[in-house]
Amino acid sequence: MKLFFRQVGETGTPIIILHGIFGSSDNWLTIGKVLADAYQVYMVDQRNHGQSPRSDDFNYDVMASDLKEFIDDHNLQNAILIGHSMGGKTVMQFAMNYPESFSKIMVVDIAPKFYPVHHNMILQGLASIDLKNLKSRTEANELMKRFEESEGVRQFLLKNLWRNPEKNNEFDWRINVPVITKNIDIVGHELANEKTITKPVLFIRGSESHYIQPEDERKIWDLFPNYEIITIEGAGHWVQADKPQEFINVVRTALSV
Asked: Which candidate in 24, 25, 65, 85 is catalytic?
């Protein structure tokens, strides 16, 4: 599958960044531009997100395969992979499926474990919006208040709204809501084909997030013995958005090693 991507930076080691569920390459543009002074940075839309193709197949094996195709198509050598949440699981799955195709990975606020479904209300809210008759993003935000109380999360989700010229300029979603809804349990699954990876793996977590717990370190150590966990104080699950400068500092330090 040919994934949509944005590139900033023309020289240096390639960095590939994968967003999380309901996200897109847009979310990482600010971070990417900062890193572009010394690296080629590729921000990729995963399948069923952003401007990448849609598919009924939606699991970590196929998303890892998409990433392998992207790396091969662009002839990227010794790439550094950064993935947030669902993107973090994709890069971990990629490491296990294609252990020779990267140099190091950075996993942002997710562990290699099972997570129960916890996006049902958001998905109900997205599906409840009558796109054909929707007048504005403000109206969509009001409708979503019944399903998601956080203004920040609602604004993040509504970045996926756009006017589709192929549908008479009506509002449409950049995310494949039906397929994501059908497969949302798979997003929380453990990784397939688990094996030990000895290359460097950095886990970056937010102090206010519950996604990586102390008891998860045993599983992380089993799969990624050459790992490090860094906690960014005051950050929640969207570490890079909550504390961008601190996040960039951690990434730059890891890149220099």
From this structure: 85
